[in-house]
């Protein structure tokens, strides 16, 4: 059997369609997992209610790495690590942003408790890292000074 150019194009189009359909399904899945209420929380108390925790305890086992001064609030690098048995979630908060939660990460069992990302900051503010282990939240915080705001400032 001879394969024509037309057959090759049809097969390529079909493969592209299947790939696009699969990626659209994964986007829908990610949207279903998104915790909209948590990202809309305006205060720490509201956020804690949504995330399902009673209190947050400061801990030296949570390590928050962020710059002392961020020249551009639109891209502030933040890293969080922890060494607490049973970590299953990490949250990054920026106290003075319009919406306090900047990132929420679910940790599969057996993985290292470490995330690194960039957050937007509207102004100089405390950045908090929360790590959940055993239904309890542990935290670290650091003030980051912003010279150019990233949330419309």
Please supply descriptive tags for the structure shown above.
extended, six-stranded mixed β-sheet, alpha+beta, three-stranded antiparallel β-sheet, 153 residues
Walk me through the topology.
Blueprint: H1 5-33, H2 36-40, H3 44-51, E1 56-58, E2 62-65, E3 69-70, E4 76-82, E5 87-94, E6 101-106, E7 114-119, E8 125-133, E9 136-146
Parallel strand pairs: 1-9, 3-9
Antiparallel strand pairs: 2-4, 4-7, 5-6, 5-8, 8-9
What's the short version?
This protein is α+β, with helices and mostly antiparallel strands and 153 residues long. It contains three helices and nine strands. The termini are far apart.
Please state the oligomeric state of the protein chains shown.
single chain
Structural class: alpha+beta
- First CA to last CA: what distance? 65 Å
**Stretches with pLDDT under 50, minimum 5 residues:** 23-31
Sum up the overall morphology in one term: extended
Radius of gyration: 21 Å
| Secondary structure tally: strands | 9
Order of H and E elements: HHHEEEEEEEEE
Helix percent reads 25-40%
Please describe the biggest sheet, giving its number of strands, its sense, and whether it closes into a barrel. 6 strands, mixed
Number of helices: 3
Strand content: 35-45%
The overall pLDDT average reads 83
